[in-house]
Amino acid sequence: MALYVHLPFCVARCPYCDFVVYAGGDARGPRARTERLYEAVGRELELRADELDIGFGPDRPPLRSVYFGGGTPSLVPAEWLERLMAVARARFGVAPDAEVTIEANPGPDERGDLAAFRRTGVTRISFGAQSMDAGELRRIGRHHSPEDVAAALAGARAAGIGSVNLDLLYDIPGQSLVAWEATLHAALALSPDHLSLYALTLDDPDEEGITGIDGDHLPTAPGARRWRERARTDQDDDRAAEQYGRATDLLAADGWRGYEISNWARPGRESRHNLAYWQRAPYEAVGPGAHAFNGVTRRWNAAAMGPYVAALVPERGRAGATAAQPGSGPASSLPPGGCEVLTAETAAAEQLILALRLDSGIPEAAAARPPLSGVLDWAESAGLLEHADADGEPRLRLTTKGRLLSNELFARLL
Ligand code: SF4
């Protein structure tokens, strides 16, 4: 259905960020590790396609979505993006009307060659705007300005990229309700097609035990941990809830569809790629820390770039050495990582949880099945779920209060 490609480089690392990111000298300059990583990602695409050929034969349906995420994938040279897309087309097939998304930062030296991206087949771009307030951007360690967001969006339009998303953050330390509303209005004035609104979460992946050798996250730097400890004191759950509610009302009044807990779209501009995740469709994924799902098993690559590149682009005989060309040097092998085979119970809970994230919710009939029906009854009595109707089918979906408290409901379902 869909392919996710993780390109992990950023100009600088934001102190709140938990994505698998390599920044500074790893991303630019004479010691940059970019070329070998891009080469490794291309090799992984080949090896994953080989596996799918063995399992399903070469006549698989073509991809309906390709998503370049990161990191700041717009830092990728256009020639490399074209090479990776060429492998995807040759080995996976890409449907003529596929959605092809790239994430980008709005800064002038980060947004990349938008016209070249469009020529490569990009149909959708997602800008990490985060805020339209210069002071807030500085406070969270971002280097672009609100004016850069406007210029980036205009550049995407001029390049012919038909669908533009802006990511925005609320619960930024010290962010007032008035300031949040101003950011929303400024973003709307730019006429994007899609908005992703996320509460700023300041977690510690080390504490969660996901930064080990095969973990899908990188350890948190001591400076970032200190920054988060300070920033948390200026966050406020109640204020965040009010900010979410205000955004919900404002966007609904402006004709937006809040089709997922954190995502709003103009009609027809929903993210096909993210819908594949929430609809539990199978998707392939490559790159450090990337997650894939085949309908039964969830698989992830380890986040560490060294072992990832070493497996896929072995040092000796690098030139021309591929798994498809035996004898020309050490063959590429799949990178380290892990996998989880879902039990029937976990799969059933996961299906409900993902469907409940969407405004279409779940069929009432599915909600009536034990053992999870008891939890859903509790959620309805607590005002977290409401009855709705979709094409004549009675359904249950989250209320605004339910969206705010969804983690509590999802934990109980699991
Ligand atoms: S630009 Fe985005 S991906 Fe890169 S460090 Fe900042 S938040 Fe993370």
Describe what you observe in this structure.
- Residues 319-327 have low confidence and may be disordered.
- It contains 15 helices and 17 strands.
- The strands form 4 sheets. A 9-stranded mixed beta sheet has the order 9-10-8-7-6-5-4-1-11, with helices on both faces. A 3-stranded antiparallel beta sheet has the order 12-13-14, with no helix packed on it.
- Helix 2 (78-91) links the parallel strand 4 (63-70) and strand 5.
- By secondary structure, the chain is of the alpha/beta class.
- It folds into 2 domains: 2-278, tm_1862 like domain (pyruvate-formate lyase- activating enzyme); 344-413, Arc Repressor Mutant, subunit A (Orthogonal Bundle).
- Helix 1 packs parallel to helix 2 (78-91) and helix 1 (34-56) crosses helix 10.
- The chain binds iron/sulfur cluster.
- Residues 10, 13-14, 17, 19, 21, 70-72, 105, 128 line the site of iron/sulfur cluster.
Strand-helix topology:
Elements: E1 2-7, E2 9-10, E3 22-23, H1 34-56, E4 63-70, H2 78-91, E5 94-104, H3 114-120, E6 124-130, H4 134-139, H5 146-158, E7 163-170, H6 177-189, E8 194-199, H7 222-232, H8 237-253, E9 257-260, E10 263-265, H9 272-278, E11 283-286, E12 291-293, E13 297-301, H10 305-312, E14 337-341, H11 344-357, E15 362-363, H12 364-367, H13 373-381, E16 385-390, E17 393-398, H14 400-404, H15 406-413
Parallel strand pairs: 1-4, 1-11, 2-3, 4-5, 5-6, 6-7, 7-8
Antiparallel strand pairs: 8-10, 9-10, 12-13, 13-14, 15-17, 16-17
Helix pairs in contact: 1-2, 1-10, 6-8
Bound molecules: iron/sulfur cluster.
